[in-house]
Design goal:
The complex is a heterodimer of chains A (258) and B (625).
Chain A: E1 24-31, H1 40-54, E2 70-72, E3 81-90, H2 97-106, E4 114-119, H3 127-130, E5 133-140, H4 146-159, E6 161-166, E7 169-174, H5 175-178, E8 179-186, E9 192-199, H6 208-219, E10 228-238, E11 241-243, E12 253-254
Helix pairs in contact in A: 1-2, 4-6
Chain B: H1 9-12, E1 40-46, H2 50-53, H3 57-67, E2 72-78, H4 82-91, E3 109-113, H5 120-130, E4 145-149, E5 165-167, H6 174-187, H7 192-199, E6 205-206, E7 211-214, E8 224-227, E9 237-238, E10 266-269, E11 271-272, H8 282-286, E12 291-292, H9 295-309, E13 313-317, H10 327-337, E14 344-346, H11 357-362, E15 370-376, H12 380-385, H13 392-404, E16 409-416, H14 423-444, E17 453-460, H15 477-490, E18 496-500, H16 503-514, H17 520-528, H18 542-551, H19 556-560, E19 575-576, H20 581-593, H21 610-614
Parallel strand pairs in B: 1-2, 1-3, 3-4, 4-5, 9-19, 10-13, 13-14, 15-16, 16-17, 17-18
Antiparallel strand pairs in B: 5-6, 7-8, 11-12
């Protein structure tokens, strides 16, 4: 073997702080307008670049790839917008959350703008697993009478499961474990507004489009061309008790933009 | 009639849920120039999908330069993937720019980057989707002026009927001059023909419609382009060259894409040009002279660029980065400045003879993925023929350094079909790969857990204009396949992976590299038969190309594999990068004799002719060893 080469990092990996010792900054952000069409992996790299541009003291993992220590809430379907997305970022040192939020805002495209930030408990479960209650709204055109759609969804819910094709794979969603509630309303233009409240967990989730496709198939109608899907709430639910993502945090920083 | 300039994103938005990767069409990326007030509007087009075109440094440079000028705006456009273009045609949506979502047909000028020959059918597809006439002759006075430039402009003849003007060489300055010329000519109310005559006065600008093609006993069957009777245009259009390269912005990429792109990192052009003189390499001949940026500029601009963009990797790009006289200082400076930020510094590929122990330590920071070297040929004799000027010892030393510094995967680039190549040379590729693997095992250890592997990628030589091999015929596809099989048969160790280029794709590339203006009929016929995205293995349709060739009375193999006499006037002889034909002929003769030619940045001038022709010289910051 040749002589040992200088290492690029001055601290040995085993001497670096563990993840649990690092401050955990939770940031809420939107996903709106044309960036609703950004896929989850592209969103992750975009947010990571925003954080680097913001100059936040982010922590880097000790693995081979030296990745930023960041966790995201569950992936949105491509095309769905949201007012309640979250990421948790481990920092190497604690900084004023208001300053962190301000710097992030200045370095983030408006369509995924952050609007709230605060430190949360270091040992909370990962966001994707913890935020198990997800509520959606879906805007449709005047596709059918509201009552007819409501009845169809009720019938699907009574059956307890939805089968659908994803790519070439058959998928089954257990509605008894995922569907908490639903509603169908009409707006002033005759368009339909559908609410779908869901629970998700390890390997189980319900996308509203799947439920609506099944309902329209049951009605013998074509599914609407481009429904406007929006995630409007993500929280933790435990034994019927709702825990908000920033519950227990002090010094919650809020954007002036929202 | 020029299409009205208006934002038509509302026509694209409803299509997004129905296409693959809608993020290709979103725009509004960080760093994109949103203010597009003009009044002069240029749209730069890379005729491939967003993720392939967005990393292109040439487009980024021209985009910045034009947008920096008062009264000029530059937007981008990429070719939509087939699903989107089908929907657009179905719903009557024209091709739009990204920034302003304005119809391409509403722009004053459109600039195509010709990155490689196989983009030809995509150029026609772009124009058709935009509703712009395919040929210059068919366009009206108000239609956009269609420009082109880039590495493949050195034989633009097969697309010459398409382009109103072709910009040769470095485009930093000439794109602005050409835009100003179009703006002023339009303001004066010149006819389209007079506007094109005016464009031909801008140095480095070739206007195909002002040249006729003459076929006689002194030419190949494709003839040569000569100034049309009565037109006051140069017989040979010389390329433009940026003398003070260090005065140009080091980081051209300011746009941070949302989606993963093929080179998803910040690129910094550390030097331009290469004087190594590899005889197959078109870029090595056409980008001369060599111009280095100072190390301090590279380090400071690189760090600033990373802060501004948020990338986690920076690539020090050029034709041969490890040849930079201050390469080690750059790498060390970068690593010190970026320590602890999880940022990787990478180099596209390393030269075997300039990859030292210290450089091995400095490249890539803490991450050791794969490392790429390009020996190009499997024997010393053949490496001398191509003037690669690296030895077996160079390879062994570089491999040993790399494995000792932590790399486990080595990639080696080779070519087959090189002039004078024999089966022994092909077998030599396998032996070389085995030797590198053996060195890896010696240094790292044996057994599956050592993770040592070697992959070899074997391209087919496509003789390119303005190289000493420009007169050579391409190797026939059947023989290419035989040699590929010979190589596969000779590689016996499973830790060596072999990949090779498709012989048919290379054949089409070879034909497009060789043809003159009459080749346009082939390109058009192929496009009419559905050829698009020919550089994509999944999309390439050789049967359609063969049918197209037959319909034009051509045989692709005959075209690509034809040898040209050394004395013949070549189809591309009227556009020049400054390298003299005498030098190329001399290099060809030396190649046949197996005599190498040194690098003029290390030894004395080799007489390529670029410096006197262009009034330039090499700019080396330190001393090249």
């Amino acid at each position: 073997m040749s002589d040992p080469r200088p290492q690029p990092f001055s601290v040995r990996p085993q001497d670096l702080p563990t993840k649990a010792e690092l401050p955990r900054l939770r940031v809420a952000y939107v996903k709106d307008s044309r960036l609703a069409y950004l896929g989850h992996l592209d969103l992750i790299s975009t947010v990571e670049r925003c954080i680097r541009r913001a100059g936040l003291p982010f922590s880097v993992g000790n693995g081979f790839a030296r990745r930023m220590r960041i966790q995201f809430s569950s992936a949105l379907p491509v095309g769905a917008s949201s007012c309640c997305e979250y990421f948790d970022l481990r920092l190497t040192k604690r900084m004023d959350p208001q300053e962190a939020l301000g710097r992030l805002e200045a370095s983030t495209p408006r369509a995924i703008a952050p609007y709230r930030a605060a430190y949360v408990g270091s040992r909370l479960p990962a966001l994707e697993a913890w935020l198990n209650r997800v509520d959606w709204s879906v805007g449709l055109g005047p596709a059918c009478p509201a009552d007819e759609l409501f009845d169809a969804i009720r019938e699907i819910a009574r059956r307890g499961e939805v089968r659908y094709l994803r790519g070439e794979k058959d998928k089954v969603v257990d509605l008894t474990r995922t569907l908490c509630g639903y509603s169908v309303g009409e707006d002033e233009t005759g368009g339909l507004s559908v609410g779908v409240d869901t629970l998700c967990g390890a390997g189980v989730s319900l996308r509203p489009q799947v439920l609506l496709d099944a309902a329209f198939a049951l009605m013998g109608r074509p599914a609407p061309d481009a429904p406007r899907v929006r995630r409007h709430r993500q929280v933790h639910e435990e034994d019927g008790r709702i825990v908000e993502p920033f519950c227990g945090s002090d010094a919650i920083a809020t954007s002036s933009l929202f | 009639m020029r299409a009205p300039r208006e934002n038509l994103f509302h026509l694209i938005e409803p299509l997004l849920p129905h296409v693959e990767h809608p993020s290709r069409y979103l725009n509004h990326e960080w760093g994109a120039c949103e203010e597009q007030d003009g009044p002069f509007h240029l749209c730069m087009v890379y005729a491939d999908v967003y993720e392939v075109g967005q990393p292109n440094l040439g487009v980024a440079i021209l985009y910045n330069n034009v947008n920096a000028r008062e009264g000029m705006s530059c937007e981008r456009c990429y070719l939509p993937w087939k699903d989107m273009s089908a929907l657009m045609r179905e719903r009557g949506v024209p091709l739009l720019s990204l920034e302003g979502a304005a119809p391409l047909a509403s722009f004053d000028a459109i600039g195509f980057t010709l990155a490689h020959e196989l983009v030809a059918t995509n150029v026609l597809e772009t124009l058709d989707l935009a509703g712009i006439a395919l040929t210059s002759a068919e366009r009206d006075v108000d239609d956009p002026i269609i420009l082109a430039g880039g590495p493949s402009a050195w034989n633009c003849e097969p697309l010459a009927p398409v382009f109103d003007a072709v910009l040769l060489g470095d485009g930093e300055e000439s794109i602005v001059e050409v835009c100003a010329c179009i703006r002023d000519a339009r303001a004066e109310g010149l006819s389209r023909a007079d506007l094109l005559r005016r464009l031909a006065l801008v140095p480095g600008t070739y206007v195909p419609s002002l040249y006729d093609v003459v076929v006689d006993e002194g030419t190949t069957r494709w003839g040569r382009a000569v100034p049309r009777a009565g037109e006051d245009v140069p017989e040979v259009v010389l390329k433009r060259c940026v003398n003070d390269f260090a005065a140009t912005p080091a980081v051209a990429q300011r746009i941070v894409p949302y989606m993963g792109i093929v080179q998803d990192r910040l690129s910094l052009e550390v030097l331009r040009g290469c004087a190594r003189g590899c005889r197959f390499c078109q870029a090595g001949m056409t980008y001369r002279p060599v111009r280095e940026r100072p190390a301090e500029q590279v380090v400071s601009c690189g760090v600033e660029g990373l802060l501004a963009s948020g990338h986690d990797e920076i690539s020090l790009t050029s034709l041969s980065t490890t040849d930079h006289s201050q390469c080690e200082a750059i790498l060390n400076g970068m690593n010190v400045a970026l320590e602890g930020r999880g940022i990787r510094v990478s180099i596209p590929s390393q030269r075997l003879d300039s990859f030292g122990v210290d450089m091995a330590a400095a490249v890539a920071g803490g991450k050791r993925g794969g490392l790429t070297f390009a020996p190009e040929a499997g024997s010393q004799r053949l490496r001398d023929v191509i003037n690669k000027n690296v030895t077996e010892e160079d390879l062994e030393r570089a491999a040993r350094n790399a494995f000792a510094a932590g790399w486990r995967r080595m990639k080696l680039y080779f070519m087959i079909g090189l002039p004078t190549e024999t089966d022994e040379d092909v077998v030599g590729i396998a032996r070389m790969a085995e030797r590198v693997l053996e060195i890896g095992r010696e240094v790292v250890g044996r057994g599956p857990k050592s993770g040592v592997s070697v992959s070899i990628s074997v391209a087919v030589l496509v003789p390119k204009p303005y190289t000493p091999f420009q007169w050579v015929g391409q190797l026939r596809p059947d023989e290419v396949r035989r040699r590929q099989q010979l190589l596969l048969h000779e590689v016996r160790d499973r830790a060596i992976r072999v990949s090779y280029h498709d012989a048919d794709v290379s054949l089409v590339e070879g034909a497009l590299s060789k043809m003159g203006r009459a080749g346009f009929s082939l390109v058009r016929a192929a496009w009419e038969r559905g050829c698009r995205f020919d550089a994509w293995t999944s999309e390439f349709d050789f049967r359609a190309w063969e049918e197209a060739a037959r319909s034009c009375g051509l045989d692709l193999e005959e075209v690509a594999c034809e040898e040209f006499p050394l004395t013949a006037a070549l189809p591309w002889g009227h556009t020049s990068p400054g390298v003299s034909m005498g030098y190329l002929q001399r290099e060809w003769r030396r190649a046949v004799e197996g005599v190498t030619t040194p690098d003029c940045t290390r030894e004395s001038c080799t007489g390529c002719g670029v410096c006197p022709a262009l009034g330039v010289h090499n700019v080396i910051q330190g001393v090249r060893s």
